[in-house]
């Protein structure tokens, strides 16, 4: 299996785990038969097939290298979805018992976004916590209330959107 086939296989496996897990958060969410029956459907597969990625580029790189070397075009919109800022370092949110995430330099990302004058069109999503709100206080912060999972009546305020003021 070549590199491209391996990446495709990983994407398929991730999609199946995401659709079948309790919270959609990969292996940390636990398997849910109800979620599997309601979310892993032919229509969810069809929606992916219908997507038009003609003008979309997706990268999986270290944020610093990507922003410095690739994301300087003034016509591009940079969407960043860093790991949650977790005050409790023993939190095992990501992966299987925390094996997919062992640290992220949130301050370095902030400093880089703040210092770049050639990368002004950016949006990022973060968990709603005092540390992140204080860090990005000079930027546009949007509170969102989204319903997660199958219980559409229960809105969550755990996510905020942060954007450069030019957006």
UniProtKB/TrEMBL annotation:
<dbReference type="InterPro" id="IPR029063">
    <property type="entry name" value="SAM-dependent_MTases_sf"/>
</dbReference>
<dbReference type="GO" id="GO:0009307">
    <property type="term" value="P:DNA restriction-modification system"/>
</dbReference>
<dbReference type="GO" id="GO:0006298">
    <property type="term" value="P:mismatch repair"/>
</dbReference>
<dbReference type="InterPro" id="IPR012327">
    <property type="entry name" value="MeTrfase_D12"/>
</dbReference>
<keyword id="KW-0949">S-adenosyl-L-methionine</keyword>
<dbReference type="GO" id="GO:0009007">
    <property type="term" value="F:site-specific DNA-methyltransferase (adenine-specific) activity"/>
</dbReference>
<keyword id="KW-0489">Methyltransferase</keyword>
<dbReference type="GO" id="GO:0032259">
    <property type="term" value="P:methylation"/>
</dbReference>
<dbReference type="GO" id="GO:0043565">
    <property type="term" value="F:sequence-specific DNA binding"/>
</dbReference>
<protein>
    <recommendedName>
        <fullName>Methyltransferase</fullName>
    </recommendedName>
</protein>
<dbReference type="Pfam" id="PF02086">
    <property type="entry name" value="MethyltransfD12"/>
</dbReference>
<keyword id="KW-0808">Transferase</keyword>
<dbReference type="GO" id="GO:1904047">
    <property type="term" value="F:S-adenosyl-L-methionine binding"/>
</dbReference>
């Amino acid at each position: 299996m070549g590199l491209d086939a391996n990446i495709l296989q990983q994407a398929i496996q991730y999609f199946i785990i995401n659709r079948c897990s309790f919270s959609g958060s990969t292996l940390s969410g636990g398997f849910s038969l109800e979620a599997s029956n309601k979310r892993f459907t032919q229509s969810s597969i069809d929606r992916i097939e219908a997507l038009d990625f003609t003008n979309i580029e997706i990268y999986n790189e270290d944020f610093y290298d990507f922003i410095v070397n690739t994301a300087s075009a003034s016509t591009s919109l940079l969407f960043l979805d860093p790991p949650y800022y977790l005050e409790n370092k023993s939190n095992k949110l990501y992966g299987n018992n925390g094996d997919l995430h062992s640290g992220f330099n949130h301050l370095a990302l902030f400093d880089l976004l703040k210092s770049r004058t050639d990368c002004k069109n950016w949006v990022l999503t973060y968990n709603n916590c005092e540390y992140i709100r204080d860090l990005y206080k000079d930027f546009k912060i949007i509170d969102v209330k989204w319903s997660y999972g199958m219980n559409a009546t229960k809105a969550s305020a755990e996510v905020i959107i942060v954007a450069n003021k030019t957006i």
